[in-house]
Amino acid sequence: LDADDLRGIGFGQTAETLVPRLAAMAREFGLDGVVCSPGEIGAVKGACGADFLTLVPGVTISGAGAGDQKRTAALPEVVAAGADYIVLGRSVYDAPDLDRTLAAVRAHLG
């Protein structure tokens, strides 16, 4: 969801403001983590602590397109930001050379 989508469903705040607030509520209600976009990892960790888990979709492998996803980032950025769990979906599923793609993923993850 981007800012226009959020307004369309009744949220008058940007994702940058809304997501940390909702993540803090989730933590208060006993959840161990949330799904967030790559750009929100730091805000979620800042609002909820480093031990609060982040599941991050919208991750692309270097050079791969974002497709229809609006808030994406490349794998190295997401790893550096501290994501706990990463969803690579389309970047792997649509890869023309799966072996090369998975080797790139392994290289980024260490």
Counting helices, strands and paired strands, the structural category is alpha/beta
Instruction: Report the average pLDDT across residues.
Output: 86
Number of alpha- plus pi-helical segments: 6
Using only CA atoms, what is the Rg?
Answer: 15 Å
- Contiguous low-pLDDT stretches (5 residues minimum) are none
The strand order across the widest sheet is 1-2-5
Number of strands: 5
- Tell me the span between the first and last alpha carbons: 31 Å
- Percent range for helical residues? 40-55%
Shape: globular
Strand proportion, as a percent range, falls in 5-15%
Biggest pleated-sheet summary: 3 strands, parallel
H-E order:
HHEHEEEHEHH
Key terms:
single chain, 110 residues, alpha/beta, 3-stranded parallel sheet, two-stranded parallel ribbon, 5 strands
Describe the structure.
The protein is an alpha/beta fold. The chain has helices at 3-8, 15-28, 41-48, 75-81, 89-93, 98-109, and strands spanning 33-35, 53-56, 59-60, 73-74, 85-86. Strands 1-2-5 form a three-stranded parallel beta sheet. It has a two-stranded parallel sheet with strand order 3-4. Helix 3 (41-48) links the parallel strand 1 and strand 2 (53-56). Helix 2 packs parallel to helix 3 (41-48).
Blueprint (SSEs and pairs):
Layout lengths: L2 H6 L6 H14 L4 E3 L5 H8 L4 E4 L2 E2 L12 E2 H7 L3 E2 L2 H5 L4 H12 L1
Parallel strand pairs: 1-2, 2-5, 3-4
Helix pairs in contact: 2-3
Short description:
With about 110 residues, this protein is α/β, with parallel strands linked by helices.
